[in-house]
Amino acid sequence: MKLMPVALAATLSIAAPAQAATIVDTGTPTQTYTGSALDSDQSLAGRFSLTSATMLTDIQGYIRSFRSSGILTIAINRGGNLPGSVLYSGTVAATQGTSFQGLSNLNWMLDAGDYWVSFANSGSGMMSRGAPNPLSVAAYWKPGQGWNSIYDPSRSIGVRISGVPAAVPEPATWAMMLLGFGMVGAAVRRRRPVVATVRVG
């Protein structure tokens, strides 16, 4: 019986990562042609909460970009009444037109708590208003003024965030993983060649 492949497969299946799930989805804003400016003079942010440790994998904002050459910067800031220090940030070329656009294939790990997701665009654009399920608070940033709260559901920005819960294995899972590694070790020991020693004289 070949224990090695079976034990290894069983052990890896226990430790396999969970699938990404939607954490935040405000829905698509209804006011496509009106919104809050998102350009080199103003950034926008919205606050969200996590109930458990989570690795963010995708962040999208509903953006109307007037210039295809603009660079979109998306960041996760510490929580509070207004956005705090930046924990993670990334950039992507803005797409001209109106759509959800942003960052994918992330591995941004966050503990449970309150956070802000912020958007900036080096070009010219806006974030449309009227998301059906708005974030709790919105804010804007202007150079020299810092972050200011502008909470108003009708001005809410469109955001989609996906992630993977950072679940801690239960005792039974740990036991199965240890058993699997033990089986792998046993299989390795059984496969070691036996060397015969012959005495001469």
From TrEMBL:
Residues 167-191 form the Ice-binding protein C-terminal domain. Coiled coil: none annotated. InterPro entries: Ice-binding_C. This is Ice-binding protein C-terminal domain-containing protein. Residues 1-20 form the signal peptide. It comes from the Bacteria. Keywords: Signal. The keyword Signal applies. It comes from Sphingomonas endophytica. NCBIfam families: PEP_CTERM (TIGR02595), PEPxxWA-CTERM (NF035944).
